[in-house]
Every structure is written in structure tokens, then in C-alpha cells.
Design brief:
By secondary structure, the protein is mainly α. It is about 70% helix and about 0% strand.
Length: about 375
């Protein structure tokens, strides 16, 4: 299977199946597209929430992740927000002269993989195999990251897509965190696409950012609806594909091509690395949800979920500014900026490692791992 996917993928060139004829979008067009996607997602979330409550598709936050005396949720919360996000982004895309067909087609597959997980909770190994299969098909039809030899680039792209699906899923552990960070990350990619003459990334960035922001209004603390695994796998997939497409922009050097997308993903990756290392260090199952995420520790350190959200949003904005700097500056300043960003994330993680979540007064209420 692996050799078949590799040979089939190598026979294709990046962009062969990507949507063609995308015109460069000016700032006015970006704002309008963002607004339409936001409005549609916002309205669809009302409908999805109503339907989920009627059908009894609800979720009560995992007691391992919150304290009963401080959790804001007194009743089960509606699920299914991922369907509203996909609907808002895809319907907005359909209004454009050229629609990003394959990213949303495969994104819908990721959504239904997560939906199956929400309903049936399959074994992690089966879920991971399906994610890698989806990632392999995506690389075949959409392409792979630029800046590396083809064989390595294909491997990095497949692992990256599956990895980001799980990374966003793990970050969906507190009201507003994943949806807010996705909004800022995709806005960062939209601007990156604009400055690197990459209209595909600009279009995809504003579509998904608008849809994530429309959902965020309902998902902010205290949340009235959760995106579920359906939504987090969808958003993780679209984030990874956008990063791959972003590497094909017009950069002045290799560090910009690789470093800028990496920095826009780095807050999610930091949380994933933090949690995996913590669980491994303490002999805990890697895929079992708990209260050791960066968001939980920030809530304890800062005293509320809102402050934890704002701290993570600030970190994402800082990484976005660094990413734009890396894309525009010469190689040496770019290298220094990347080192600065990595050092900042390391200090951030080091400080949170020292927080004792067991003695805290506030922690997460999302539904991620």
C-alpha cells in the first residue's frame, strides 16, 4: 500500500488537481469573503445547535478535565459544530468564481471520520490508520510541501496532515480555544498568501477563518455548542493543507518557505508536544484526555478560562507576526526571528510545566483529548 501511494503520488505534480484560475484577492475582497463565511457559519450554528438538542446529541464535559464546583456548564452541551463550520466555509466558497474543491471534499471526509469517532469511539489505532489513508489521498490529489526532496516532502506532508488533525483535536479541550486559535492561524495564512502571491492560500485562509470565527461566537466561554471530533479533525485537516499550499508561495529563501507556515502552526504543536511529553513522563496513556494541556494550566495560573483563551490568542498573534517577518526579511534576520519564536514557546511551556493543575481553581471544559 505504501509503495503504491508513493509511486502514484510521484507521478503527479503539485497543483495538478488544485483548483485553477484563482485571482489574487485584494483586501476588500478578503474582508467580504471573510464576512460572508462568518455570517453563514454563525447562522448555521444556531440551526445545528437546535437540531442537536432536539435529537439529544449532546455532551457533558469529562470530569477528568474540570472541577464540578467551577465548571460553567450545568447541563449537557449540543454537539455538531463542525457541520456548521464546514457549511459556512463551503457555501461561501461556492459563491467564488473558482471553488477550492479538493480541500473541502477531503475536509468533509475528515469531518465524517470525526463524526464516527463522536458516535462510536473507535480504537485509536483504527482512527489513526484512517487519518493516514486520508492524508495519503490528499497528498496525491492536492500535492505536498515544497522545500524538500519529493520523497521526504511526501512523507512530511502525510505525517503532517494526520498529525495536525490530532493536534487540533487535542487543543479542543476548553471553550473557545481551538476555534479562536484556528481563526487567528487561518487569518495569518490569508495574509501570508497575500504577501507571497499565493491566492489559493489567501482564499482558503479567509474562508476557514470566517467559518471558525462564526462558530467561535457560540463556542466562547461558556460554550453553548461543541465542535466535537468532527469539527476538530476538519479544522486540523484544513490547517495542515493550508500550510502545505502556503509553502508554494513566492519566498525569497528556504527559511521563509518552511519557517513561516511552521510558526503559524507552532502554538498547536507546542501544546501537543507538551501534553505528549507530560503523559509519557508520568506514565499516562498518550491518547487519554486529562487536564494537563497548556490551556488548563493557563486557566489555573491566570484564574479563568477567558484569561487562558486570551493568553493563547496573544501567543498565536505573536507567532503570526513572526511568520510574516520570516516571509519578508532576509535569511539572517529570519533565522534569528525563528530562534526567538522557538525560545519564546520553550519559555512558555517551561513556565506552564511548573503549574500544579490539581490544586487549581479553574480548568478546561472542552471535549478534546
Amino acid at each position: 500500500m505504501r509503495s503504491f501511494v508513493l509511486s502514484a503520488t510521484l507521478s503527479l505534480r503539485p497543483n495538478r488537481f488544485a483548483w485553477q484560475g484563482v485571482e489574487r484577492m485584494d483586501w476588500g475582497g478578503m474582508s467580504i469573503t471573510l464576512g460572508i463565511s462568518l455570517a453563514l457559519s454563525y447562522a448555521l450554528t444556531f440551526l445545528v445547535r437546535w437540531g442537536a438538542l432536539k435529537l439529544g446529541w449532546t455532551h457533558r464535559p469529562d470530569p477528568r478535565k474540570w472541577r464540578r464546583q467551577t465548571n460553567p456548564h450545568t447541563a449537557p452541551i449540543a454537539m455538531g459544530g463542525g457541520f456548521a463550520i464546514l457549511g459556512g466555509a463551503a457555501l461561501s466558497a461556492a459563491l467564488l468564481p473558482s471553488c477550492p474543491f479538493f480541500p473541502f471534499l477531503f475536509g468533509a471526509v475528515a469531518l465524517f471520520l470525526g463524526f464516527y469517532d463522536d458516535l462510536c469511539s473507535p480504537r485509536p489505532i483504527y482512527r489513526l490508520l484512517l487519518q493516514f489513508l486520508l492524508a495519503s489521498f490528499s497528498v496525491t490529489f492536492i500535492g505536498w510541501v515544497k522545500g524538500f526532496p519529493d520523497g521526504l516532502a511526501i512523507l512530511l506532508s502525510v505525517v503532517g496532515i494526520a498529525g495536525m488533525m490530532n493536534s487540533v483535536n487535542m487543543m479542543d479541550n476548553m471553550d473557545g480555544v481551538a476555534s479562536g486559535l484556528m481563526t487567528l492561524a487561518m487569518l495569518g495564512f490569508a495574509v501570508l498568501g497575500a504577501v507571497t502571491n499565493n491566492p489559493q492560500v489567501t482564499v482558503l485562509g479567509v474562508l476557514v477563518a470566517g467559518a471558525a470565527l462564526g462558530f467561535w461566537w457560540h463556542n466562547r466561554p461558556p460554550a453553548r455548542i461543541f465542535m466535537g471530533d468532527a469539527g476538530s479533525l476538519l479544522l486540523g485537516y484544513l490547517l495542515a493543507v493550508t500550510a502545505i499550499l502556503a509553502s508554494r508561495g513566492e519566498f525569497g529563501h528556504w527559511l521563509g518557505r518552511v519557517g513561516a507556515p511552521f510558526l503559524l502552526l507552532s502554538v498547536f504543536l507546542t501544546d501537543t508536544a507538551f501534553v505528549v511529553l507530560w503523559r509519557a513522563r508520568h506514565g499516562l496513556p498518550v491518547m487519554q484526555g486529562d487536564r494537563n494541556h497548556t490551556s488548563h494550566r493557563l486557566a489555573v495560573l491566570l484564574g479563568s478560562e477567558w484569561r487562558a483563551n486570551l493568553a493563547l490568542y496573544t501567543m498565536q498573534l505573536m507567532m503570526g507576526v513572526c511568520a510574516l517577518g520570516v516571509s519578508l526579511l532576509p535569511p539572517l534576520p529570519s533565522a534569528l526571528l525563528i530562534l526567538f519564536a522557538i525560545a519564546l514557546l520553550a519559555l512558555f511551556a517551561h513556565r506552564l510545566w511548573q503549574v500544579d493543575v490539581e490544586d487549581g481553581e479553574s480548568d478546561g471544559s472542552g471535549d478534546g483529548a
